[in-house]
Amino acid sequence: MTRNLLEAERLRQLAEKKKKKELLKAIETPEEKRLRRLQKKELKERKRKEKMGWDSEYLHYTNADNPYGDNNLLETFVWKEKLLKEGVADLSKEEIEKRNRAKMEENRLELEKVKKRRLERELERAEREALVELEQRQREAAQFSQFSKQEDNFQLEQARIRSQIRVEDGRAKPIDLLAQYISSECELTSTGVLHVHEPYTHLTGLTLNDLEDLMEDIKVYQQLDRDSKNQWYWSDLTIIVLDEIRRLKMRDAATDTAATSASQRHGIHSAVAGEVSVLVLCCSQTQRCCRKGDRAIPVLLSNTALLPAR
User: Fold this and answer.
1) Which of 23, 217, 236, 306 is placed for a possible disulfide with 175 were both Cys, Cβ 3.0 to 4.6 Å?
2) Model confidence pLDDT, tens digit, residues 239-295
3) How far is CA 28 from CA 16, 22, 36, 38, 172, in A?
4) Looking at the domain assignment, is residue 166 inside a domain?
5) Residues 65, 187: one domain?
6) CA nearest 280: which of 243, 237, 219?
7) From CA 16, how far away is CA 37, in angstroms rounded?
8) Is residue 158 a part of any domain in this protein?
9) 219 domain residue, yes or no
10) How is residue 303 annotated by DSSP?
11) Same domain? 19 vs 116
12) Name one GO biological process term (predicted).
C-alpha cells in the first residue's frame, strides 16, 4: 500500500516536471533554445570524457578550443595497424574505447608515481642541502670562535706588554700592579724569596675616578683573560673595588665634616682587608711560580693564610 503511494507520488512529480519543462520550451526564445541545447551537449560531452578517463584538467577542451590545434580531439583515435599487429582489429568501438580508458588510467597512475618520486628526490635534495649548510655554518662558527680566541689572547698579551712597560718606566697604573699577581713571570729577590703584597694595598689613596677607571680596566681583563683561575682573581677584585666605590660615594653624599671624611679615608676597610679572598689567589699563584723553579724557595706566607679559601 505504502509502496504504491510512493510510486504514484513519484510519477506525479515526474509528470509535473515534464509539463513544466514543456512549458518552458514553448515560451523560450531562439537564443535561449540554442543556449539550452549547447549546455545539454556540453554536459553530455563531459560525461563522455569522464567515462573515457579524462583528467579534470582537460575536461573543458573541445575540438575548436584546445592547446593542441586538433580538430578531432574529441574523436576516439583508432590505430588500425597497431590493432592488426596486436590481433585485436576485430574489436568493437566500445571495446576499443574501454581498452583505451584502461591504458589511460594506467598511464595516469604511472605519471602520479613519477611525480611522487620526483617530489621525494627534491625533498631529499633540500634536506641534504640544509644539512650541508648547517655543517658549513658550524665549521664557520668554530673557525670564528678559534679566531676570536686567538684575537683575545693577542690583545691580552699586548695589554700585559704595555703594562710591563709602564711598570719599568715608573708610571704604573693600579691595573698594572694588580695584573702582576697573575703574570706568568715571577720576580724573585736576590735572596731567593718571593715578596708578595696583598693586592688591595695598591688601592690605598685612590680617588673615586681612579677606582672607576680601574673597574673598567678590570672588565677588559675579565673579557680577554679566559683562564678560570684568573677569572676568580678578577671577580674578587671586582667585589673589592665596587665596595670601595660604594663607600666613597656614601662618604661624598654624607654631611659629615671634612675632618671626619679624611679620617675615614685610610685605604681599604679593615673588615674587608682582613678576609679578602684575593690573598688566597695570590698564595696559590705564588706556590705555582715556586714549583716552576729548580730549587726550593721559601715562601713568606704561612699555610694559615690558606684557611679562608673557598
Assistant:
1) 217
2) 988 998 888 888 888 755 554 555 455 555 555 554 554 444 454 455 445 444 443
3) 18, 10, 10, 14, 112
4) no
5) no
6) 237
7) 21
8) no
9) yes
10) G
11) no
12) mRNA cis splicing, via spliceosome
Phi/psi for 229 (5° steps) reads -65, -40
Q: Is the dihedral of CA 160, 212, 226, 184 positive or negative?
A: positive
Residue labelled with grid coordinates 724557595: 297
Question: What are the respective helix, strand and coil percentages of the chain, to the nearest 5?
Answer: 70, 0, 30
Q: Helix count (H) and strand count (E) of the chain?
A: 10, 0
Residues 257 and 179 reside in one and the same domain: yes
Buried b (16+ CB within 10 A) or exposed e, 14-47: eeeeeeeeeeeeeeeeeeeeeeeeeeeeeeeeee
Query: Is the dihedral angle over the CA atoms 28, 31, 37, 41 positive or is it negative?
Result: negative
pLDDT beneath 70: ranges in the chain: 1, 49-63, 72-78, 183-197, 255-310
Domain that holds residue 62: 2-75
> Are the CB atoms for 160 and 183 separated by under 8 Å?
yes
CB of 284 closer than 8 Å to CB of 251: no
d(CA 154, CA 166): 18
233 vs 7: CA distance, rounded Å:
103
* Assigned domain for 121 exists: yes
pTM: 0.38
245, 132: one domain: no
* Residue 58 grid cell: 582537460
Which residue type occupies 281?
L
